[in-house]
Each structure stands twice: as C-alpha cells, then as structure tokens.
Amino acid sequence: xxxxxxxxxxxxxxxxxxxxxxxxxxxxxxxxxxxxxxxxxxxxxxxxxxxxxxxxxxxxxxxxxxxxxxxxxxxxxxxxxxxxxxxxxxxxxxxxxxxxxxxxxxxxxxxxxxxxxxxxxxxxxxxxxxxxxxxxxxxxxxxxxxxxxxxxxxxxxxxxxxxxxxxxxxxxxxxxxxxxxxxxxxxxxxxxxxxxxxxxxxxxxxxxxxxxxxxxxxxxxxxxxxxxxxxxxxxxxxxxxxxxxxxxxxxxxxxxxxxxxxxxxxxxxxxxxxxxxxxxxxxxxxxxxxxxxxxxxxxxxxxxxxxxxxxxxxxxxxxxxxxxxxxxxxxxxxxxxxxxxxxxxxxxxxxxxxxxxxxxxxxxxxxxxxxxxxxxx
Length: 377
Hints:
By secondary structure, the chain is mainly β.
C-alpha cells in the first residue's frame, strides 16, 4: 500500500515532479555512494537508514549563492506587510529573507557585516535557523542533498561534501561528522515589524537567478493541525499536536517549549529556566507561509522570541500596556527584537536566548527530553 505525499513539491525543481513516496525506508547504498563519490559514508553519527530521499536530487532545490538585496521600500512593492521574513541583525547590518523565496531555495549563503552565514529554512519543520559558515578556519558553502532525516532537511557543504542536519547544525555523515556550526539569533517576523525596526535594513531580492512562482506556497495546507509530517517514520510525541507551532528555548542542557495556544493571550510572558530569567515576546497577525496556495491569502499566526530579562545586571519585569511592551522598573518601551525604542533604556538590547519557532514534532524529535510550559513537566 502506498502513502500519498501530503505536499506538492513539483515547483521546487525545474521539470521535477515528485512520485508518491513509498512507506519503506531507503538506506544509503552503493548507488548513493556512486552519486556522492566525495562523501565518506563510512563515517556517520546516525544510522544511515534514518536518512531518506525527499524526492529532489542533489541541489534539486538550489541554494542561493549570490544573493541580491533591495531596500524595504522597493520590497514593499511585492511583499505584503504581514508576510513572514527571517530577520537577521549582525553588527550594524539588518537583513530580511522572505519565506516566499526561502520556501523554494531553503539555503542562502551570505556574508553579513563581514561574517559568512547560511540562512536556512526547512518548510517541513518550519525551522528557520542561521549558522556561521566559518568552521575551523575555513568558510563552507552549503547546498541541499535532497534527503531528509526525521522530516528535516539534510544539507551538505561543498568543501568536504559532509552531510549536516539542518535542525541541529551538526555534521552527521562524512569527513566532518560530529562537528557543529555556531548559530546566530534570528527570528521569523512580519515584514512590517522588520521594516519598522530597521528602516534602512535590506531585503533579499526576487532576482535570484532562478524562475520560481515566488508568493505561491507549494506546501498548501501543510501546517494544518492533524497533518502528519512528511516522511516521518518515528512516532510523534503525544504531548503536543505534531504541527503545532511552538517557541523552543535552549539554555545549556535545558530545553523548554512554549506552545502557541499558551502564548495566544500572552503578548508578554516572564519566566525562569533554571536560574536564568527569560521573557517571551509574542506578536500577532503574521501570515503563515505554509497555509494557503498564495501566502498573501493565508491565515494569521503569532510570531515569538525569547530574551534574557537581565540588562546591565538589573532584572526587569515586562508587561503589556496598550499594545506596547514596557518594563515595570523604568517604563521603557521594547520592540519584538528586544530593543528599547523609548524611555530611560532607549538604545539598549536584551540578550537573545537560543531557540526558535518550529513545529512541535521537530523540537520533540530532536529534543525528546524537552519540557513543555504549562504541562506540569
């Protein structure tokens, strides 16, 4: 019996139409070795049988290696105010990478403020993560293998052709097995929030060198609650619906998940993970990139980010007042990027906490011991 693939990936590669996915696993074989002659498959940190073909071949989903950028004003001509973008702020530079573009490319190899970075997005996990491309003194360039593990994209670097788990930033096959990439704070936010906070920020251009129907969603309905993750063989954790968006926070060995239904009525949530006081900022009204056929017609979902509540050694407590977030200690006004826009602390920044908004199944597949806020774990 065959399982029908729940998403349409035909537009991801020119001339590529996915066949129905078989239910049996497809282990790495001599045939795959012949396709990847420069990858050392004798070195791996995971069972090779866990890695499955997602349909496209090597680089069938093409990374963007020479990204071009436009001003926010120019991007506003084709990007809706509430459309989701991956926001990255390094040094004195801020850039936005629209999901309507990343959904067709999944990786952007870029250099921001002199720092080589890879901006990655796995639509199947709703995982937007930015990594440093410099590793052991060498700058790596990343591409897509076309394979998945636990429904998450498996990337490869072009220098050694080692394979990397996108969700963890860890090499799982090849010469660099066991290596980890450093992660930069980033967040998925509505374009209008990026534009308001960074009026001089740049936006990834649609001029990518590829012809794609940007603005269209090839994963229509994929983030519907009750949907099963694509090519996920593992049982899903029953504590949360698989496709529930959650904000996950990592602090040392601790991982805590904040389901969006818990955050729905809490634009501000003060919490403590271990000995670290944190605050969760939640903004409402952003469009989902994985709902309707056209992203501009999609339903609205929240955006969320986590920060330390300590500024200059001082513990702050945050509250929502008249659609603004303020700290009770000084009355300063803070934006979704953790920056004080008004008040005595104007210009100060909250320290981001590592984590991101991904689907619950992905967090729980890679962090099975994660605790869930509000569940009594």
